Amino acid sequence: MDHFEIRDGIMHVEDVSLPAIAEAVGTPVYVYSRATLERHAQVFADALAGLGSGDRAPLLAFAVKANPNLAVLNVLQRQGYGADVVSGGEMRRALAAGMAPDKIVFSGVGKTAAELGEALDADIGQFNLESEEEGVELSAIAAARGLEARCALRVNPDVDAGTHDKISTGKADNKFGVPIGKAPAIFARLSALPGLRLRGVALHIGSQLFELDPLERAFAKLGKLIAELRDSGHEITHADLGGGLGVPYKADDAPPSPAEYGEMVARATKGWDVNLVFEPGRVIAGNAGVLLTRVIRVKRGIADPFIVVDAAMNDLARPAMYGAWHDFAAVVPGGEHMRANIVGPICETGDTFAMGREIESVGPGDLAVFRTAGAYGATMASSYNSRGFVAEVLVDGARSATVADRIPADAIMGAERVPDWLD
Ligand code: LLP
């Protein structure tokens, strides 16, 4: 359920009409609904509430990469969420949004020495070590500061998550984590190092998952590893199960519900006796945002017409990058149905949102939205073709605010210079 609906013939986000936002902020613009974000955060938390309470309550660490906007993070922080971060920049955003340092988990294969040091100084809750080499480096940095880093070892369970290759992370040849078969030996070596408190294990096998079975198989492998580590005398208090739950992009998409996911997790982790950590991203933010765009012109095609909109692959990269589907809907619906190709203005064929799509007809000057754009939308924007960076708006009931200014192409050009020695 979301809060994007037609009222009096016009699409609204909560109580604010999209034409009013287009008028005030221009297009293209991402528009997020606070009520939808909160509802998704609550539904996900409710689905996992049975897994532990008090000291053992699961930590819900929103995957900041999905939507790093400060206002979005602030909304989620108020819902009790922490953050899964993958760079110093994301960590500073989580802190700036008010997330408690002990609710921050730091993942990623390429944390630099500077980032490790910064995260130690911020006293974050957990480093998810992605390699033995990273653990050795963090040990040295922490020991030199007289600090102890709380860590989990991320393992690669060699499970095919059954999703798009580019967002699959748990197969043996993916770059993430250490091979699960080597984990006991690596865990033993790292836990002997100073400056590290290696207290758990972590995994994340991929994103936009439509099947629970690969996750359950991965969790079963993790359960065996926990038992093996304990048999070797290690104290295991934390298990991070990553994110990955899929969301519907099309009307007939039926991903597992958070409740079904929660039941599977309860079954798979029975008797683990650990603090569970989750890193949901898309399931919280995906359907809480749309990309609002205006039709520039409609161009005759050989078969179907081309609807050229003012949003492009630099604003929403997913269709060009993964062939992803985003529903396209008129802000003032009710026109005849038509078949069309929906494209942006960028000069490459990849700047295509849809080919041969059945839509309600739109014409030059009309507003439309790409739905399910709240996750991996604005955050993946670029300034390709010198188009500047897209703006973002948050709606809360009848209130709305620009939560990220449009960064015009000229501002980006202003950060460039021609050296005076060029002759
Ligand atoms: N934890 C880790 C370690 C991750 O790498 C990711 C996503 C998540 C959590 C959150 O996964 P989610 O719950 O959102 O599925 N740009 C791609 C998605 C890349 C996901 C990368 N990792 C897309 O637009 O589909």
Number of strands: 21
| Rg measurement, Å | 23 Å
Which shape, going by the Cα principal axes?
globular
Per the CATH scheme, the topology name of the largest domain is TIM Barrel
Second-tier CATH architecture of the largest domain: Alpha-Beta Barrel
Tell me, what is the CATH class of the largest domain? Alpha Beta
First-residue to last-residue Cα separation: 61 Å
Mean pLDDT: 97
Share of residues in helices: 25-40%
Number of separate helices: 12
Counted up, domains total 2
Structural class: alpha/beta
Portion in strands: 15-25%
**Low-confidence runs of at least 5 consecutive residues:** none
Sheet having the most strands: 9 strands, mixed
Relevant CATH superfamily of the largest domain? Alanine racemase
- What small molecules are bound in this structure? ligand LLP
Explain this structure to me?
It contains twelve helices and 21 strands. It is α/β, with parallel strands linked by helices and 423 residues long. The chain has two domains: 158 residues, Lyase, Ornithine Decarboxylase, Chain A, domain 1; 250 residues, TIM Barrel (Alpha-Beta Barrel). The strands form three sheets. Strands 4, 14, 15, 16, 17, 18, 19, 20 and 21 form a nine-stranded mixed β-sheet that branches. An eight-stranded parallel barrel has the order 5-6-7-8-9-11-12-13, surrounded by four helices. A three-stranded antiparallel β-sheet has the order 1-2-3. Bound molecules: ligand LLP. Ligand LLP binds next to helix 10 and helix 11.
